[in-house]
Structure formats: C-alpha cells, structure tokens
Design a protein that fits this description.
The protein has 17 helices and no strands. By secondary structure, the chain is an all-alpha fold. The longest helix has about 35 residues. The protein starts with a helix and ends in a 43-residue tail after the last helix.
Length: about 500
C-alpha cells in the first residue's frame, strides 16, 4: 500500500496550498475579528521548537550521508558530488513541505472546529460535517482510539531512536554501551520514561518552559559551532544549491513509487517517513492548533509549512553538509559507517571537529531533552483524547500512557535484540510506525473532505462576520457537556515538540 502514502501525502500538501490561496484563506480560526493570541515571532519560534526533535538529531547526518553512499534510483555514482546533491535534495524532501503539510491538515481541522465552531477538541468531532451526531457515538470513539494508538506508536518509534542514539553517544564519549547494546538502550528508555512521566504530571510550567528554552539554546549553539569551525562556505553553497534542486525536483520526487526498481529506498525511507509523520499527526496537530488561534487559514498554512521547513533546510545544511564535506575530502569514510551503524554517524562527524567531548555531550543532552519534552506532551495528548477531550487529564491517566509508550519502544528494541542486531531493532521501529499510520491515513483524507464541507457551509466566508458562538454552532446530543476551549490564559493546556 505504499502508493497510498505517496499519493495521499502529496494530496495533503496540494490541499493545504489550495486552501491558502482560495477564498477560504481569509477565514480566521476563531471569531472573524479575533486577533492572534501570539505575536508572529513567538508563533514561529514555538513552531521552530516543535520542529526540532529526536528525528533531526538522529537523521541530521545519517540520512544525507546514507543517500550519498547509496544514491536512490541510480541518480548518481556513490560518494560523488552528484550523489551529495541528490542526498541533500532527498533529505529536504523527507523533512520539509510534505511532513508539515500532514501536520497542517490535522492542526487546521482541530483549530477550525474548536475555535470557530465551538466543538470539543477531539479528532472525532472534526468529522461532524460528514457524520453529524454520530461523532459522539461508536464511530467517533473509534476515530479517537486510532488517534491514540497512532500517537502511542509514533512516540515509541521516536523513543527507540533516541535511546539508540544516546547509547551510541555514551559509547563514543565514555566507552560504555555500543552498537548492539540493546540492554543499555532499554535502560535509557526506562530512565527517560520516568523523567517525562514526572514532567507530565508535575504541572510545573516553568520546568517545561526551561526545557524548551534549553533545547533551543543548545541546538543553536551546536549549529553555530559547526558552522564556524566547519566548512562554512561549503555549507552556504550546499544550502543554496540544495534548495534549488529540491524545488526543481519536488514533483517527480513526490510521485516516485519504485515501480521499476529500488523499492527498498522507497519503503525504507519515503514510506517510513510519511507513515511516521502521519502517526505523529494527532499529537503535533493538537499542539499547532493550540498556538494558532486567531490566525487566518492563509497565515496558518504558510506559517506551519514554511517556517519549520526552513529549520530543516538549515539543520541538514549544517550537519549533513559538514558530513558530506568530510566524505568528499577523504577525511572520514562516513557513508560506510552510516550504512553499518546509523546512530554513530552524528558522533563520528562531531569527532572530526574541535571540542568533540563537549559537542558530543551536548548532542546527548539534546536527544534526552527533546525526548522528555516531546513524550511529556504526547502522554498528555493521549490522556486528553482518552478523557473525552479533557484538557487536564488525571495524573494516573498520563502515567498509564507514559508507561505504555516506554514499554512499546522497549519491546521493539527487544525484538531487534532477539535477532541480534541494531538494524533489526530499527526495522522493528519502522514497522511499528507504518502499521500505526496505515489506518490513520484514511482519517486524514476524511478530514480534508470534512474541512472543505464545513468551509463551504459557512454562511458568509468574508472578513467582518463573526464566527458562531463557541459551543452552539453544531448540535450535541442531550446529556453531553459543553466543549472545553483551549484556553489562552492557561499556558499548560498543551505542550509539545515533535519527536
């Protein structure tokens, strides 16, 4: 079913762009005269934080250097300048417009139906235009259950990747652990799970804010350090040329299904990524919706898709560009290493520059903090979805989902350990992400039709008209409680970072 992921993901991007340029682009996510809760700078900064996670730490070097050593579809000779360009273009492809279009669809649906239509902040209620009051019955509950499990296994995938990379970092800096030390990775999972559960139930906003700010500072420091001590001119040239190549080839890349060969690349990279992003869509969508009240649909789409994409461009240009320069100059054989041990690629690159012990330690801390911040929010979202949209789920509910997330990641790594390699563990994590996303892609497609139907039914979709009073725009069965609104006054309503 790979073609389903390929077509649907491009469809999400096309649909989001259509909404931005259509007459619906002027509609606000809230009352029509409502202003954004956050300044544009703060809004973009929060999405920057959401876009920085374990995934970028794990694949920032591993992906471009892997593609360079084995260019997809025979587009270039391995480990050549042509292969380097292809590698950067595909890294951009997997981390820029397409994944954030997936999040934009989910976030837009939640923000529109919560802030403009006064519905409960659940995935199921976004289907009201299509299902009517049935969203409050078994069908709606099934949708929310699928959203929970997609978030659970998407979070578990990120946790597993983070544990493997921390394991490798500890081996590089302190000489403990190693490539196939799955036992240590499981111990890391246990420790981090305890940390994020404590963070999630503590309710201490300053602590979460401190974690996010620390993430930002450390990430910027790492990028600036590599930019200065690394191949600065090469990085700038890579950034510029790779963006041009990506934009020129985005259409053919979007539709490649490997019908005529190299199916391993499509299934192991593109389909895995699209499935992973889809599995994270409920969680990230809730977070993006939370910070986007008062934005127009046009502002929302362009901000959500463009701002994090620029972060990805910069991240891969600095980390991936530095690694590629080392490979081309012969200073290190990173492509061979990445093929054998992806988690080691980042640390092998940092080892070629000054102050390795410091940068490696920062990388380990970043992975840990990104995980704690992201898993904290994911467990809160799962608790919310399993509590009829309660913005403040009970502590025991959060703990249960936190334990389930850690256990799922540990089971995947154990499955790999039984087969005797970290490669098997990575394959297990990928399989879990794809399996959890398969049913949810249908939900995202349905959301597109639901959003469009609701927008068309707006009586007057022009500036100056007030949105329906929250909680009264759409009917609810007797006995149901009024929906909770995502409150701007409570900064702890939703917290999150993409993993």
């Amino acid at each position: 079913f790979g073609w389903v992921f390929i077509l649907s993901t491009f469809g999400f991007l096309a649909f989001a762009v259509y909404l931005a340029f259509s007459r619906y682009g002027k509609i606000r996510l809230g009352a029509q005269d409502e202003q954004p809760e956050f300044s544009t700078i703060s809004w973009v900064a929060m999405m920057f934080s959401a876009g920085m996670g374990i995934g970028l730490m794990f694949y920032g070097v591993a992906e471009p250097i892997s593609h360079m050593g084995a260019p997809p579809f025979g587009l270039a000779e391995p480990n050549t300048k042509g292969a380097a360009q292809v590698a950067m273009e595909y890294s951009y492809f997997h981390w820029a417009f397409h994944p954030w279009a997936i999040y934009a669809i989910m976030g837009l649906a939640l923000a529109y139906f919560t802030f403009r239509k006064g519905m409960p902040n659940l995935v199921s209620t976004a289907f009201y235009p299509l299902l009517g009051d049935r969203v409050y019955g078994p069908i709606g509950k099934t949708i929310d259950i699928l959203a929970i499990f997609a978030t659970l296994f998407g979070s578990a995938t990120s946790l597993g990747l983070g544990a493997l990379q921390i394991n490798q970092g500890l081996n590089s800096v302190f000489g403990i652990g190693g490539r196939d030390a799955v036992g240590l990775a499981i111990l890391v999972i246990a420790v981090l799970t305890a940390c994020f559960i404590f963070s999630a139930i503590s309710g201490v906003h300053r602590g979460i804010q401190w974690l996010s700010n620390t993430n930002m500072v450390l990430a910027v420091f790492l990028l600036l350090f590599l930019f200065i001590v690394g191949p600065t001119v090469f990085i700038l040239n890579t950034f510029t040329e790779s963006i041009g190549g990506y934009l020129a080839n985005i259409i053919p890349m979007s539709f490649r299904t490997a019908s005529y060969g190299d199916s391993a690349f499509v299934s192991g990279w593109t389909i895995f990524y699209w499935a992973w992003w889809i599995s994270w869509a409920p969680f990230v969508g809730v977070f993006i919706a939370r910070i986007s009240r008062g934005r127009t649909i046009r502002e929302f789409v362009f901000g959500v898709i463009l701002a994090p994409s620029v972060v990805s461009f910069v991240w891969f240009s600095v980390l991936g560009g530095s690694a590629i320069n080392l490979q081309l100059s012969g200073a290190a054989n990173l492509s061979q290493l990445a093929t054998a041990n992806q988690p080691a690629a980042l640390f092998a690159t940092l080892q070629q520059f000054p102050l390795f012990w410091l940068t490696a330690l920062i990388a380990i801390i970043l992975v840990a903090l990104f995980f704690i911040s992201g898993a904290d929010a994911a467990s809160v979202v799962m608790g919310m979805l399993s509590s009829r949209g309660d913005l403040h789920p009970k502590a025991w509910n959060i703990i249960v989902w936190g334990v389930f997330t850690g256990a799922a990641a540990a089971v995947c790594l154990l499955a790999g350990a039984i087969q005797g390699s970290v490669d098997a563990a990575l394959l297990a994590l990928q399989s879990v992400a794809i399996a959890s996303a398969a049913p949810f892609v249908i939900i995202l497609i349905g959301l597109c039709f639901s959003i469009l139907k609701a927008l068309r039914e707006e009586q007057v979709a022009v500036p100056g008209r007030e949105a329906p009073e929250p909680g009264r725009a759409m009917s609810r069965p007797q006995g149901t409680t009024a929906p909770q609104q995502m409150s701007a006054e409570n900064p702890e309503d939703q917290r999150g970072q993409r993993g």
